[in-house]
Specification:
single chain; 83 residues; alpha+beta; 3-stranded antiparallel sheet; two-stranded antiparallel ribbon; 1 helix; 16% helix
């Protein structure tokens, strides 16, 4: 069974939106490159039901992504629990 993938965007005004999506790449290396590219970008761009959403990072407080990418950059703290 395919794992459910989702992205939750929490905005600085306290509102949030959650988007589900299919796996974007098959290759682990390409997945890590896409993750690094997204971390450097000044916006998140999503195609949602025929519309393109452009969300400026300046409007975003936090982003949650599940499941976490298989390969993560070295700066990511792994195995954390939230308290």
């Amino acid at each position: 069974m395919a794992m459910d993938r989702w992205l939750r965007v929490e905005y600085v005004d306290g509102t949030s939106e959650t988007f589900s999506f299919p796996k974007q790449v098959d290759d682990d290396y390409e997945q890590m490159q896409k993750f690094r590219e997204a971390m450097r970008s000044d916006r998140i761009v999503l195609e949602v039901e025929g519309l393109v959403h452009v969300i400026p990072m300046s409007a975003i407080k936090r982003v949650d992504l599940s499941p976490a990418p298989t390969n993560l950059p070295d700066f990511v703290i792994r195995g954390a629990t939230q308290r």
